[in-house]
Amino acid sequence: MITCKIFGEPIETDAVCDELETISYVDASKDLHSDEDIIFNGAKSFLKFSYPLLKDDIVYGLGETMGGINKRGRSYVSYNTDDPHHRDSMKSMYGAHNFFVIDGETSVGYFFDSPARITFDVDVENSCRVDVTVETLDLKLYNIVGESAYDVTKQFLNIIGRSFVPPLWAFGYGQSRWGYKNHKDIDEVISNYQKVGIPLDYVCLDIDYMDRYIDFTVNEKRFPDMKEYVWEKKRTGIHLVPIVDAGIKVEPGNETYETGVKNGFFSTNEDDNPFQAAVWPGMTHFPDFFQKEAREWFGNEYHKLTDLGFEGFWNDMNEPSIFYSEYSTKQSRLDQALDFLMPSRAEKKEGSKNNSYHDYHHFYHKVEKKRMCHHDVHNLFGAFMTRASGEGLQKLLPNRYLLFSRSSYIGAHKYGGIWTGDNHSSFAMLRQNLIHMASLNMCGFLYTGADTGGFGGNCSRELMLRWLAFSDFTPLMRNHSAIGTKKQECYRYKRTDDFKRVIALRYRLLPYIYSEFMKALIHKDMYMKPLGFVYPKDEKARRVEDQLMVGEGIMIAPILEAGETHRSVYLPEEMVHVRFDGENFYEDVMPKGDSLITVPLNEVVFFIRKDHSIVVTRHLSMNTAQLDLRDVKPIGYDVDYDQYIDDGYSKLTN
Ligand code: MIG
Q1: HSE of 561, CA atoms in CB hemisphere, 13 A
Q2: pLDDT digits (tens, 9 = 90+) for 106-120
Q3: Of 29, 53, 253, 398, whose CB is crowded by the most CB atoms within 10 A?
Q4: C-alpha 419 to ligand 1 mean position (Å)
Q5: Average pLDDT value for residue range 600-623
Q6: 498 C-alpha to ligand 1 centroid (Å)
Q7: Which region, left, alpha or beta, applies to residue 446 given φ > 0 means left and ψ of -120 to 50 means alpha?
């Protein structure tokens, strides 16, 4: 059962597919006090809500936030932020995913549909409440009652609409690094992977492929014939995936800039001129993604890349990230770079960091004919960039495209996936990756993953192998790292056979992963779930924070600690314990309850649920182009597996 209370005059966020018969709308503006959950703070004109928690209630959700699967005990702030120093105490990340479920004797979900800044205090200092402060008087508040957390979430997924459909190759293994300069660097990556026999489906092009960081251009010295190059790689089964940043370089002759200025497609400053802020290209203007025409224009700009043969893209810097502007402290590029490499240096200089919040109060958008301050609609900026790109690519390409964005808001899942930004090389971040997979799936972001191995910092051999063993199961499986860190392509490490074994599992499992992903997508379901969603009556399963369900049939319990080759696992029911050694699958039945498992560094372990089976390929393929989704054998219990198959690139009809 879903009801929606409308406060004030909220703008259209594109999160909920409108006018659904299953939702009853209530205009709350006239009688604010009738609802006892609302404390109206007149002085600051914020909306406040408070929901009681029982001792055993679990609070699930909130997408891309720190903390556990159970969100109790912390504060979270939806205010999209590019802060590359992910700390445990951090309250805001790149996305705003304002959906949570309180699950206990009853299960109730809330979705705060507003692009304004929102604070969620979830049982902070044992308050036994969820307190929500919404920094506006305009809001749509959805309330969903269901039989379980899973049921509530499925109702929610149903109203926000179907997730973006990636091509099959996007489920392969991808290599990326900030610092690949030219075609030689890319060729070297590809040939080194081939040499060691590790499969590879795509390589990402970070900002250095562009001409001076100008969107939709190519640096011709570095890539003399990009079109030929892209096609040459595609013929060998490798896709190239270029990055696109949010800011458009201010420079006469830059066509995107000139068209944008001429048509009033950029965000404006107080004087109604295009707002200027410095990012990688130097001074830029930010497209006003809130205008439909600007979105159409920007989306169509991707033709400059699709014309070259690209079919996959990643959108970056779209919180938007700002180095400095006419309003903030002017900070030199060198200073920026030093801050980036030395977090402690940056932390000491609060106020002159990236994304000075100050800037967000000094530019404007045209939103449904109204002029609105960026701050009030901040959380939608990146999502609307993704919307622009997705709608554009849908028109430009006859088949599916790959798209993942850094910043997001619920609704953007219809146009692309997301990656979880600038994490670092640590086991703590690997654990966070697992937690994010559960909470992001609740918000429709099925196609997601983290920078495998970690973006910042140096990744040890052990961490990389453990991280790959987890990423084997995440739809987006991309090894990415920052310039200046130790290089972390798999072939750089000793005994590459171990890496081959771990990545081989991904390719052997692809028929299952793809099938389960597509089934979840088509049925508006989750692909990865917390254990409590599947075993809601099992109090112990509900408390598990380091295992996940993957599709209908698999449970995983990855190693998340340094120096460990054992871990305890909780099985809510009898399961088949599967070990993969690179070649063969070994199966044995394990009883319900706690068990200790052994997972050598070069093996991957997973579990198949009672009375379920899965399918794996008979042979290892070196990329998805060589993969035959039909050449499979079943493992697990003796029941049929209902496999979803399609060609992996045609758009879904309907
Ligand atoms: O200011 O394009 O999160 O993945 O490698 C840093 C360079 C800009 C941030 C992205 C990261 C990417 C990097 N970008």
Answers
A1: 9
A2: 999 999 999 999 999
A3: 53
A4: 11
A5: 98
A6: 29
A7: alpha
* Alpha-carbon separation of residue 405 from 39, 242, 382, 418 (angstroms): 36, 12, 8, 5
- Residues 256/290, Cβ–Cβ less than 8 Å: no
Question: What is the whole-number distance in angstroms between the Cα of residue 253 and the centre of ligand 1?
Answer: 26
Q: How far does the centroid of ligand 1 lie from the alpha carbon of residue 176, in Å?
A: 11
Ligand 1 site-directed mutation target among 317, 324, 407, most atoms within 8 Å of CB: 317
For ligand 1, residues with CB inside 6 Å are 178, 206-207, 243, 316, 406, 421-422, 480
Cα(420)–Cα(432) distance, integer angstroms: 10
Closest C-alpha to 603, from 474, 466, 496, 481: 466
pLDDT of residue 576: 98
- Cα 562 to the chain's mean position, in Å? 25
Tell me the C-alpha distance between 29 and 33, whole Å: 9
Ligand 1 nearest-atom number relative to CA 206: 2
- Structure tokens belonging to residue 1: 């059962």
Long-range contacts of 434-438 (CB under 8 A, 24+ apart): 434/470, 434/546, 434/548, 434/558, 434/560, 435/67, 435/68, 435/69, 435/545, 436/63, 436/64, 437/474, 437/528, 437/548, 438/60, 438/69, 438/528, 438/529, 438/530, 438/548
Of 402, 371, 377, 380, the C-alpha closest to 389 is 402
Q: Which of 176, 207, 316 to mutate to test the pocket of ligand 1 (most atoms within 8 A of CB)?
A: 316
Number of H helices, E strands in the chain: 15, 38
pLDDT band at 124 (very low <50, low <70, confident <90, very high): very high
Reduced to 3 states (helix: H, G, I; strand: E, B; else coil), residue 517 is helix
**Ligand 1 centroid distance, CA of 389 (Å):** 18
Tokens of 576: 């088949």
Distance 331 CA to ligand 1 centre (A): 18
Q: Is residue 126 a contact partner of residue 91, using CB atoms and an 8 Å limit?
A: no
Of 381, 441, 435, 452, the closest CA to residue 417 belongs to: 441
> Confidence band (pLDDT; 50, 70, 90) for 39?
low
For residues 549 and 530, give the distance between their C-alpha atoms in angstroms, rounded to a whole number.
Answer: 6
| Residue of 25, 172, 116, 163 lying closest to 442 (CA atoms) | 163
Torsion on CA atoms 352, 383, 97, 513, rounded to nearest 10: -120
Neighbour tally for 406: CB within 10 Å: 28
| pLDDT exceeds 90 at position 22 | no
Q: Which of 406, 430, 423, 433 is nearest to 485 (CA)?
A: 423
The model scores a pTM over 0.85: yes
Structure letter (DSSP) for residue 549:
E
Give the residue carrying structure tokens 């696992």: 569
H or E segment and range at residue 119: strand 118-122
Parallel/antiparallel/unpaired status of strands 402-405 and 604-609: unpaired
Nearest ligand 1 atom to alpha carbon 243? 2
Q: Residues 148-189: pLDDT tens digits?
A: 999 999 999 999 999 999 999 999 999 999 999 999 999 999
- Measured from the Cα of 177, ligand 1's closest atom is 5
CA–centroid distance for 27 within its chain:
33
